[in-house]
Design a protein that fits this description.
The chain has 219 residues and is an alpha/beta fold. Helices cover 36% and strands 20% of the residues. The chain has one domain: Alpha-Beta Barrel (TIM Barrel). 45% of the residues are buried.
Length: 219
């Protein structure tokens, strides 16, 4: 059984009120989605910048970026000024050092889309370059890439292997809700939980679902 409560990141935040609501229930991080090829929640860089400015420390503000070059990610950060960058696709040439040099005070989180045993190896290889790994259920190989917000579970046995082997804090995303979060915590034992569609109704943050989720986690 899990002995400590995982950190909770509420993603797909659309405005200042959603950010404040998530934090009021106990979120330790919020996710702000930049331009994506598909999926829910993208907002403009101007909106990300504005929302991030309203979030008090020590809450983490995650910029979800689909940029794949170091310079593209650096430029995206300069427009948004979050304290954390979530790289949702593969980084060309694994140029993490270039991002670190340009943005030494910004945390880096790499998304691994869990599709099979190869994802365990990928997480192990990339973990040394970043501050945390986030496991999701997208598919970057599709013609229109899925890079998050699918609302689907992946194989939690593989997620558990990644938690045990990658040597970094691991956030679990993908289809989490109040009904399955205890199973997810017990099965994977992640450092953090990341949710979007599981606490939304018709695309809007639903405070009743949010309350149910936090109650389930702390039960």
């Amino acid at each position: 059984m899990v002995s400590i409560h995982p950190r909770i990141k509420v993603c797909c935040i659309a405005n200042e009120k959603e950010a404040a609501d998530a934090i009021s229930f106990g979120a330790s991080a919020i996710g702000l989605v930049g331009k994506m090829p598909s999926g829910p929640g993208p907002i403009s860089d101007e909106e990300i910048f504005r929302i991030a400015r309203t979030v008090p420390p020590p809450i983490a503000t995650f910029l979800l970026t689909s940029e794949q070059t170091a310079q593209g990610i650096i430029d995206h950060h300069h427009r948004t000024r979050t304290n954390t960058i979530q790289i949702v696709d593969g980084l060309n040439d694994r140029a993490y050092a270039e991002i670190r040099e340009a943005l030494p005070n910004v945390k880096l989180v790499q998304v691994i889309h869990v599709v099979g045993d190869e994802s365990v190896d990928e997480a192990y290889e990339l973990a040394e370059h970043v501050d945390a790994i986030l496991l999701d259920s997208g598919n970057p190989k599709l013609a229109v890439k899925e890079l998050g917000g699918t609302g689907r579970r992946h194989d939690w046995r593989l997620s558990r292997k990644i938690v045990e082997t990658c040597g970094r804090p691991v956030f679990l995303a993908g289809g989490l809700n109040a009904e399955n979060v205890r199973e997810a915590m017990d099965s994977v034992q992640p450092f953090g939980l990341d949710l979007c569609s599981g606490v939304r109704t018709e695309g809007k943050l639903d405070v009743r679902k949010l309350e149910s989720f936090f109650n389930a986690v702390h039960r």
